[in-house]
Design brief:
The complex is a heterodimer of chains A (about 170) and B (about 550).
Chain A: E1 3-5, E2 8-10, E3 15-16, E4 29-32, H1 33-38, H2 40-45, E5 50-54, E6 72-77, H3 84-95, E7 101-106, H4 113-119, E8 123-125, H5 129-133, H6 135-139, H7 156-170
Chain B: H1 6-27, H2 33-41, E1 45-47, E2 52-57, E3 62-64, H3 65-78, E4 82-85, E5 90-96, H4 101-109, E6 127-128, H5 142-153, E7 168-171, E8 185-191, E9 197-203, E10 215-222, H6 226-240, H7 251-258, H8 260-274, H9 283-290, H10 306-311, H11 315-324, E11 325-327, E12 333-338, E13 349-351, H12 352-365, E14 369-372, E15 378-384, H13 388-398, E16 412-413, H14 428-437, H15 441-447, E17 452-455, E18 469-476, E19 479-486, E20 498-499, E21 504-505, H16 509-523, H17 531-538, H18 541-548
Parallel strand pairs in B: 6-7, 7-8, 16-17, 17-18
Antiparallel strand pairs in B: 1-2, 2-5, 3-14, 4-5, 4-13, 8-9, 9-10, 11-12, 12-15, 14-15, 18-19, 19-20, 19-21
Helix pairs in contact in B: 1-2, 1-4, 3-4, 3-12, 6-8, 7-8, 12-13, 14-16, 16-18
The chains are: A alpha/beta (about 170), B alpha+beta (about 550).
């Protein structure tokens, strides 16, 4: 599956390791929340980078204490109509200050890229090659945003007020 | 009127080009129908029985004449020459071709009209009082807040894939014309003891197969905090609303299952935890939006102009005036409701010719402005009283002066089995038959205010639960049957109707309704006692007895 990271098609350095399967000695791995929570310290002691796949119905409170030692958090969209992970993403970025990789997994289509980026995702396991290829193009689709989120894009309301301010300053 | 600026226009155009890409990908097979379905629903496109149906937003029910003319154009060019106004301040076109949809959207975008979030599991078109800004005694114009919320909910990055659809309605008047208590969030603008403007916030109302009247979650949220409070409600709902069963996915079920106190506590905790996330609306932000609304330059006019005195002897004019003309906050002006419920016609339909003509009349008599209400009628919100006689003549010629506003033939109905793939039974022919039965306007006047609502299935698009008389189509052994409720209402005293008896077959519905009305006329205390008040006073039983005695 193609991975888009920081706007570009990238080789995925992380290996998804199934529950019960043996962990590679080094190298970056993504493990399930259950496996991680069973023994976080052991997993964090490994030499390779660690990422956790966090289900969209699991409370983030259990994850938060470990955030600063994780290289990736992968949130899940079982189907693209299930939007729970958007809330989780914003909470991780905006409330808990998580600044590692935030990865979208599951049914990811180009039609979600803008929403996901605005919610704080920066890595995308895209389902279709054509969508992955269209990432940069799709991100240019919108230039106006009504809501403030943690991505820092200036809202329409703020742009209007800035404009008004500069107009009145120029008089 | 709210004037879109460059930013609003840019966003709408960007949405049109995104949708064009989605249609192209569907037509080329790159998107499966399953994937495309969710995407088209986000933009108001349903697949109905015969064709695609296209639902276009009329945010908070305000339209300019230019926009209404563009609806006429779309009806003519892409459809079969008419459109259907819905119960949520939208217009629907029933015969659009998929390949032409992006062009229709682009034509609408030129006049600041869009179809964003008119369907799908997202925050739907924000609705409000169709008399906003002109009704006497309003706290303030609720459209300022409607527009702020419209912007905030449009293409929201967190809440575009909710468990189910989510509807917000706002009122600022004592009499609720926006039916806020049957919405997911209802907002009632009022002032607190310190004179500060804010909202009573209600949550968890909705119809469908499990109807609920909304409950108050917070008696007062200041205007400056309303966006963050809504955000907190949505965040709790997005995470905890049920997704295992679409019939249990609306917020009303979550509120019901948790109980309003527990739900309110969850929301409050989230709201407090949010802190300052840039959603606080300070004075400048509110004024920025307020400044984009323009108001007519009203003249100083007499309360009772000569034209009105002279027309008073015209019985037809007087009947229409008493029925369809309402008080305006400015002396010398009136609000005029245009009935889209002609005898024998489908409720809420307007032809392209009618739309063009109403746009012309709005330019001539109403500062170019038109309103759309949830009762599926139109209104001209700023008509000088001296112009009423001339306006009446013009409307009468167009078939838009039926003096039945709020009367028994002012029926709210969904499209039903004639168009809709979800329906179990027809709605429109029932409505048409009822308008024929009660075609005599004297009889209708005698009966007084009476709202009949018809839904062709349990999804309740015709709001049958809150009709004074509600009619619900069901299917029984392959035949159309109808359950009838009485005593419902959608206003500030919102209540669900009570079933009056066993379901009746299609052919008997109009007879039963006539009998119910007969029973009411016999039982009412005095002529001023409205149908709903008689039902409230006596309960269902005495009416049931009379109606079902011979059945």
């Amino acid at each position: 599956m193609p991975l888009v990271k920081q706007g570009r098609l990238t080789t995925d350095l992380f290996v998804h390791v199934a529950d019960g399967a043996e962990l590679p000695g080094d190298g970056a791995v993504l493990v399930s929340a259950e496996r991680f929570l069973a023994d976080p310290q052991a997993l964090l002691r490994r030499s390779g980078k660690l990422g956790v796949i966090w289900p969209n119905n699991r409370n983030l409170d259990e994850l938060v204490p470990h955030l600063d030692r994780l290289a990736s958090v992968a949130l899940v969209f079982p189907t693209f109509r299930d939007g729970r992970a958007y809330s989780q993403a914003r909470l991780l970025r905006e409330r808990y200050g998580y600044d590692g990789e935030l990865r979208a997994t599951g049914q990811i289509l180009r039609d979600q890229f803008v929403f996901m980026t605005r919610a704080g995702f920066d890595a995308f396991e895209v389902k279709k090659d054509a969508d992955a290829d269209a990432f940069a193009q799709t991100m240019k689709r919108y230039s106006v945003f009504y809501q403030p989120t943690g991505d820092g894009r200036v809202t329409a309301l703020n742009r209007r007020m800035q404009l008004r301010h500069s107009e009145s300053a120029g008089q | 009127m709210y004037a879109y600026d460059e930013l609003d226009r840019t966003l709408i155009n960007e949405r049109v080009s995104e949708f064009r890409d989605q249609v192209t990908r569907r037509l080329s097979g790159e998107l499966t129908e399953d994937e495309f379905k969710i995407l088209r629903l986000q933009n108001g496109v349903y697949l109905q029985l015969h064709a695609y149906m296209f639902r276009v937003a009329i945010p908070y029910g305000t339209l300019s004449s230019k926009q209404l003319r563009r609806f006429a154009h779309v009806a003519r060019r892409y459809d079969r020459g008419y459109g259907h106004f819905t119960t949520r301040q939208n217009i629907q076109f029933n015969w659009i071709k998929l390949a032409e949809l992006p062009d229709a959207l682009a034509d609408l975008a030129e006049v600041g009209i869009h179809a964003m979030q008119t369907s799908g599991n997202n925050m739907r078109n924000v609705t409000s009082d169709q008399w906003a800004g002109v009704a006497p005694g309003e706290i303030e114009d609720p459209r300022i807040w409607s527009e702020l919320i419209r912007q905030h909910t449009t293409l929201h990055p967190e809440f575009s894939f909710l468990p189910r659809k989510f509807k917000i309605a706002i009122t600022a008047a004592e009499h609720d014309r926006a039916a806020i208590k049957i919405h997911d969030i209802g907002l009632r603008l009022h002032k607190n003891a310190d004179g500060e403007t804010g909202f009573e916030v209600l949550v968890g109302g909705g119809l469908g197969r499990t109807p609920f009247i909304a409950k108050t979650i917070k008696p007062f949220v200041s205007g400056r905090d309303i966006l963050s409070y809504i955000e907190a409600i949505l965040r709790v709902y997005n995470q905890y609303g049920r997704r295992d069963n679409i019939y249990k996915a609306r917020i009303k079920i979550l509120v019901h299952e948790l109980g309003i106190e527990k739900f309110a506590k969850e929301v409050d905790e989230e709201w407090k935890a949010m802190g300052d996330v840039g959603l606080t609306l300070d004075h400048t932000a509110i004024e920025e939006v307020r400044s984009r609304f323009s108001y007519p330059a009203y003249e100083k006019l007499p309360h009772m102009p000569d034209e009105l005195k002279q027309a008073a002897h015209d019985k037809l004019f007087e009947r229409w005036r008493k029925n369809s003309v309402s008080a305006h906050k400015v002396q010398g002006y009136s609000i005029v409701t245009l009935s889209l419920k002609p005898v024998g016609g489908p409720p809420g339909d307007a032809s392209a010719e009618q739309m063009d003509a109403v746009a012309d009349l709005a330019d001539k008599y109403s500062f170019g402005e038109i309103r759309v209400g949830h009762e599926q009628n139109l209104a001209l919100p700023h008509v000088a009283k001296r112009d009423l006689p001339a306006l009446f003549k013009a409307l009468d010629r167009l078939g838009l002066a039926t003096p039945n506003v709020n009367l028994v033939t002012d029926i709210i109905a969904c499209p039903g089995l004639d168009y809709c793939s979800l329906a179990n039974a027809r709605s429109i022919p029932i409505a048409q038959e009822l308008t024929r039965r009660f075609a005599n306007h004297d009889t209708a006047d005698l009966i007084g205010r009476l709202h009949i609502n018809i839904s062709g299935c349990i999804n309740a698009c015709g709001h049958h639960h809150v009709g004074h008389i509600g009619i619900l189509g069901v299917e029984k052994n392959g035949e159309e049957f109808y359950q009838i409720t009485i005593g419902g209402r959608a206003d500030e005293n919102a209540q669900l109707g009570t079933l009056i008896g066993p379901a009746v077959p299609y052919a008997e519905v109009a007879d039963v309704i006539e009998d119910i009305v007969e029973a009411y006329l016999a039982l009412r205390d005095r002529p001023e006692e409205l149908f709903v008040d008689t039902v409230k006073r006596l309960g269902v039983e005495p009416i049931r007895e009379r109606v079902y005695a011979t059945r």
